[in-house]
## 1
Amino acid sequence: MSIFDIFDRINKEKPEPSGPPEYIIVGLGNPGEKYENTRHNAGFMTLDKLANKYNAPLKKLRFKSLTAVADVNGTPCLLMKPSTFMNNSGEAVVEAMNFYKIPAEKVIVCYDDISLEPSHIRIRRKGSDGGHNGMKSIIYLTGFDTFPRIKTGVGQKPRKDYDLAAWVLSRFTDEELKLMNEGTDKAVASLELMVKGKTDEAMNKYNS
């Protein structure tokens, strides 16, 4: 990368909002190249797309996460990709919530859902962990289940006896990645509505 490329990148990055974040947006996944483009990293994929849209690189290590602060649709938000691995996601979320004194109702969690096909999403205001280990950790460590969440479809197991862990850690096919691009587009558009208090509108528009 030339010095001109570096300056160009710096100039494109928007300055962080001066005030504290009003929302926390968390994408769940596993860190490292080994897990890139795997089904369990749908939350990371959404956060990467959101951060790229708002020129807010997720590179600052805070709260056991790669983070950035960005004005999402005019609302200051902390963006987080926990580095704890999926099963300990709650460790990162509870630290950020406690630091900024942000209630669960303003912490939006994005993650994968094997009951939905790629390109489909489902928004919920609150609920149980649904068997998802990342959400299980967050709910257990914070003591709340009132997190708004966006679940992005990653496809069902090819057969009932297929190992669940092997399935969610498998990579998408090229065709599935095209569909996932549609799904993460919908998730980002939903986030832009939700941080403006328009969750019902997001649900009506994008829920599958």
Note: The two ends are 42 Å apart (CA to CA).
## 2
Amino acid sequence: MKKRVGALAAVIILLLCALVAYHRFPVQTKGTFFSVFPLLAWVSVDQPVLFNHIRHKETANLTCSFCHRYVERHRSAGIPNIDLCRACHSTDALSKKPEALKVVKYVQEGKEIPWKRMYELPKFVVFPHWVHIQSRVDCSVCHGLTGSKERPVKMVDRNYMAWCMDCHQKRRASIDCYACHSS
């Protein structure tokens, strides 16, 4: 009986400490959680085409800005349109792989690929991609494994204000409210 009470007390104390840590130190607590359980830091996103970032990055030597055309000049990075894909995927001569053939079909039918948006911040948050690119912040800082996995992945461990604030403080970037919360 004493062992059960002791174990229950230990669990309650542990949960209480975790609760206090989470609310007092959310960035560090989440960081610790995701370092202990790294597989929970990202989720695979089902897209109409399993876009292989590795193949496009390493084999075709494409940069993020090749497909995400607006990343260097605008707030939004932009989603690749079918005209970009057409340059390499107008026929099935390039690849016989099923996912590449899906792209060929979209190109031949002249239909846009209905990509699902992976990252979307609240409307009151302004994230100018171009500022981060000019400051030489690598895409992987925010997008993590996205460019290094065969499947499209969304990083869930870094899409919140405290994470951004922590990054800004480490890089000595502005932490003024209006830097990210202006129109």
Note: Residues 39-78+119-183 form one domain.
